[in-house]
Write a structure and sequence with these properties.
Layout (H helix, E strand, L loop, with lengths): L3 E4 L6 E4 L9 H14 L1 E4 L6 H8 L25 E2 L15 H6 L16 E10 L7 E5 H6 L3 H7 L3 E4 L1 H7 L7 H6 L3 E4 L1 E3 L6 E3 L5 E4 L4 H15 L5 E4 L6 E5 L3 E5 L10 E8 L11
Parallel strand pairs: 2-3
Antiparallel strand pairs: 1-2, 3-13, 4-15, 5-13, 5-15, 6-12, 6-14, 7-8, 7-11, 9-10
């Protein structure tokens, strides 16, 4: 079956057919996926009924795996292996998480606009999310195009932000929702890292905003001023014209480029409805800025 790509929204997102994730990919197929990502930033591959090993094998086509997504909370018992981010509402026994479960509380941060793994020195390249059990009553994933958002800024703002550096940490994003229940070890592992506010795509050369709920400061700025400015940029970048809303169907595999997008999941009845979503992630080229004490 030939590979076909159909755009979903003016700035961002496309459906790709003709790829079977269950089998090894040819070099041409990998190149076609990467070209689609460079252009559309989000690709939807429908009908991919895969298991964990198939998802891992497919993900490895796009760079080194970023592991340890589920180990940020040290007291959490894992349901999936270290190479997976378990973004379901299930515990290790495949039962729905209780309302006050610590893992559920922390995971509510996924409802904030963010880019995956910007709380790490080397942030994420691609995220690949497999919809094993989905819901149509909420639970949409929204993606914002950070390239289009950057392009739409006035020149004065582009000049102002060109060399700004921000601090990123999971403590900042979870703190926005009032979750502060971290151990000393977790606070140490989640200490802030630095990232440029403007990044350049290594293939296309396009500039984009590196925004995320994980941002808690701009280096050299008073914190209230920094957070007010980041809020303005977030509101600008998530206008409907820049956003693709994905409504999940079972066995969708959605891939997005964290270097050019931001995303969030929308609320659903997670106390009564099962949603089993499994994400694998690859690492980007390296740090966006030299690190120093943040």
């Amino acid at each position: 079956m030939p590979i076909e790509v159909h755009p979903l929204q003016r700035h961002i997102g496309a459906t790709m057919t003709g790829i079977d994730v269950r089998r090894p990919q040819t070099a041409d197929e990998v190149a076609a996926i990467e070209a689609g990502m460079d252009k559309h930033a989000v690709l939807v591959l429908p009908g991919q009924d895969i298991d964990d090993q198939q998802q891992l094998a497919f993900t490895r086509n796009f760079g080194p795996l970023q592991e340890g997504a589920n180990t940020t909370l040290t007291a959490t018992t894992l349901r999936l292996g270290a190479a997976f981010a378990d973004v379901s509402n299930l515990d290790k026994d495949n039962q729905r998480l209780e309302r006050n479960d610590r893992r559920r509380m922390a995971a509510l941060g996924n409802r904030l606009w963010h880019s995956d793994a910007t709380f790490r020195i080397v942030p994420a390249r691609y995220s690949l999310l497999s919809g094993r059990i989905t819901t149509t009553a909420g639970g949409n994933t929204e993606f914002a195009d950070m390239r289009a958002a950057y392009d739409a800024l006035d020149q004065a703002t582009k000049d102002e932000i060109e060399n700004l550096v921000c601090e990123h940490s999971l403590i900042y994003s979870r703190g926005q929702l009032g979750f502060t229940d971290f151990t000393d070890a977790e606070r140490h592992s989640m200490r802030p890292v630095l990232h440029r506010l403007v990044r350049t795509h290594p293939v296309t050369g396009r500039k984009s905003l590196l925004l995320s709920a994980h941002i808690g400061a701009i280096v050299g700025w008073p914190r209230p001023e920094a957070m007010a400015f980041i809020r303005d940029l977030m509101e600008h970048a998530t206008q409907p014209e820049f956003v693709y809303v994905h409504r999940w169907t079972r066995h969708d595999l959605v891939i997005w480029d964290n270097r050019t997008t931001m995303h969030r999941v929308r609320r659903f009845d997670d106390l009564n409805v099962v949603r089993d979503m499994r994400r694998t992630t690859t690492m980007s080229e390296g740090p966006t800025v030299a690190q120093q004490a943040a």
